[in-house]
Amino acid sequence: MQINDETFITQKTFRALLQAMSHPGRVYQLEQKTEVRSQITDKYNLFSVLQTLLDHEVGFCVIGKEKEYLKSNISELTGCPVKDISDADFIIVSDGESNGEILKAKKGSLEYPDTGATVIYSIRSLSQIPPYPPLVKGGIRGDLKLTLKGPGINGEISLFLVGVSKKEFHYLKEINSEYPLGIDSVFIDSANRIMCIPRSTRIEVR
Amino acid sequence: MGYVAVKGGTEAIENAAMFLNYERIKGNSEPLRVEQIKEQLYLLVDRVMGEGSLYAPELAALVIKQSAGDTFEAAFMLRAYRTTLPRVGYSIPQSTKEMRVIRRISAAFKDIPGGQILGTTPDYTLRLLDFELLNDTSEKRESFIRGLFNGIDAAPPIPDSFPKVIEVLRNEGLLIESVSSQNGLPACLPERVRSQSGNAQAGIFDITRQSLTFPAPRSAAMQTMARGETGGMLLLAYSNIRGYGDIHPFLGEMRVGYIPVKIKHPLTGEPYTVGEVKVTEAEIIARFTIKDGSPKFTLGYGLCFGHNETKAITMAILDRAMQSAEPKPVTEVPSITAFEGRLNRGMPSEDQEFVLYHLDGIESMGFCNHWKLPHYVTFQSDLDRLKKAQQESGVKNET
Amino acid sequence: MKLKEWIANKEHKDNIRHLSACNAQAEKSEVRHKFSGYNFAFIDEGSKREIRRKLLKAIAIPGYQVPFGSRELPIASGWGTGGLQITFSIIGTEDILKVIDQGCDGSVNAVNIKKLISKVAEVRTTIDTHEATIIQTRHRIPEERMREDQILVLQVPLPEALRRIEPSEVETRRMHAEADYSLMWLYLYEDIVKFKEISIASRYPVMVGGRYIMDPSPVPRWDVPKLHMADTLYLFGAGREKRIYAIPPYTKVEPLEFEDFKFRIEDFKGESCMRCGSKDTFLDEIIDDATGRRTYLCSDTGYCDKVLEGKEGKYYGD
Hints:
CATH class of chain A: Alpha Beta
CATH superfamily of chain A: Bacterial phosphonate metabolism protein PhnH
Oligomer: heterotrimer
Strand content of chain C: 15-25%
Distance between the termini of chain A: 51 Å
Number of strands of chain A: 12
Structural class of chain A: alpha/beta
Number of helices of chain C: 8
Distance between the termini of chain C: 85 Å
Largest sheet of chain A: 6 strands, mixed
Largest interface: B-C, 67 and 80 residues
Strand order of the largest sheet of chain C: 1-9-8-5-4-2-3
Helix content of chain C: 25-40%
Structural class of chain C: alpha/beta
Shape of chain C: globular
Largest sheet of chain C: 7 strands, mixed
Order of helices and strands of chain A: HEHEHEEEEEEEHEEE
CATH topology of the largest domain in chain C: Rossmann fold
Helix content of chain A: 10-25%
Number of strands of chain C: 12
CATH topology of chain A: Rossmann fold
CATH superfamily of the largest domain in chain C: Bacterial phosphonate metabolism protein PhnH
CATH architecture of the largest domain in chain C: 3-Layer(aba) Sandwich
Radius of gyration of chain A: 16 Å
Strand content of chain A: 15-25%
Number of helices of chain A: 4
Shape of chain A: globular
Order of helices and strands of chain C: HHHEHEHEEEHHEEEEEEEH
């Protein structure tokens, strides 16, 4: 039997993703790995997820900062071809801000809603408890409180995000307004934590 | 206690596996060598490779031995082995014009460009038992072969390439490529296919990576049939030509031979031949009236691994049958008058979903056999409903 | 052309050289296969990646059947290949695996599947529902309440709940797309007219999240309520039919019923397990060879053992 490092990392990462997608709004810790296969060290967390999901059978696009750098590195690492946003299966939002671009994403068809895209946000911080000391910038709190309801959630769940704007969730709500059409989102923070919001989740933003 | 017997099975299934082995080897004959199967039961090997969708004569011979000659089991083992092999690349589409032909016939024309080559066929032999084979010896074989080649000088070589018979029709404008489409993908291709088809190989559906969606593109239908179970395909095709359908096919051309497998060289990008595979190809011609009312010929195409003429021809018939102008689903309700009912009734062989979902031998064999697995929980549940229904309808329960 | 001439041709020379390089490569990989065995968890990483992508979509759209490119496995189609492919795609070396068929760990098919998984994934196995992290099952959901950190993988023979009313996939897919389930309700109504009760025994259709009618696999009706607002993730795999679907935890799962003709679980009329004495489990009916007498045993043998040893877990419906 052969178990190489990649097999091991992707299996662990997938199990975290599986739990996170089954429990929207719950924050899970990805395994911290010191060994990194590629030269990209700063976004390792993001890359362990991409390595788990992307390959030549699907297509991806990047929105936001470091677009070109990420594009070529992701392509090289996963063999996944770059596509237009309207055709991509995975959309990587590198700084938590799509500026409404995600509204162009594939939502799937009524016969095949699963062809809707998955959007992966790289953001600063995800937490089940509010950040302390509170982030205040010019009188405005820098964190965002989400309250979620729906399948996978026992009643409701709240969490706090830093590095993503309130507007982004309006876009998400808009593109997911015709269930079962829509997109599913994965959030990854700088401390290797992940959280998912599938299209079936109802979002409330404070 | 009948049902309990299926529990505590570890030992039982290990013993059963050993008995299975024993059954095959318990006789007094010499062990069967894989090489013998490969050479002397080559048609069986070809059939198993086709249905197992893996071109590997030696492994096919091995699984035939291992399965004691059960073609379903053998093809299944080969298919399961296939799953474990990495996909290292894609071969370049290959025209069969370049086939190294060992047999080639046309039933539609008396004389064909390049000539008919009868090759190896049992078609015109008398099916009488050859009792000589009961005492087959190497000496007898050698003397037969000596006799066969005695006095034959170097025969003129068979040309590298033969023109296609259907080209004649094509050049005269008598042929349209297919009813549903002029090229690969039909216009009604579902979104998921369109969205995925750009990846591995443009426009070609991959049934080993995607599950079928309907209407299925012709490439998906072709792949499904190429690994279909020969007997199942024969049944469906026969139903069409016998009366449950309307295809009146002519065999335009059938050829058996070897085609090169070429890949793009990873560095130079140039085509490179990495080997060759034996295939059987059949092209059937059937009449069809296009929208402006003028009659044309259309083509039904079949190609499978190895030498399997029955399969190639049935595949071509089914390909053509599934292109029927407006196929009606099998489930459609017949109309009132008998004649209208006859016209409106869907023909199984023309219903793409019906054909493609039911001709895989590995799937159908697996599911039919799964009824041997214990079902006592669902049976208990059914008993409960049955007793309840009897109670409701006043039938006295006997317990 | 003579062979010598053919070989002398430059293009052919290159071909031959390349061919021998390929052969050498093939031989090397052959060696790899023969001596180091199969990949971890049998199927290759690319196939796992596809199944994993489909699993996430299945969870995101509870009850919707996601098509996937099912692979052939060394056990027959219809014998649990869908469940196996899911298990292979999620399992890791730290998992503890339980496999049951008809509720029983020792059933021949369960043994066979467990043997295969533990051979290619080197995981620990157990018969204790409580201890397992992944449970693969055919036809039953364990009696013990499962936890959030556990996953139940169900083997599915016929994933389409609407197939009993409509044979065509194109048509049933349209029904799901439009949430047009009127025919299904009509079927239930006619059933009641005929039998004065809904006669569906197992594979009882359920409505998931108020949107999709779903086949819960051939579990008895007894197990259907366990799907509703559960703590556990349920993954369904149909290998031959090439579909994956899921019920995330805390999801509404309602059996189809009318207000005046309710869904009802199997009635054992107060019978109890002759081994452990349980009165609140699904029972197998056993007919004694000698006396012809009917007796009953727990279908969930692991649970039966626990009750017998006096350390049973938490009951359902507490």
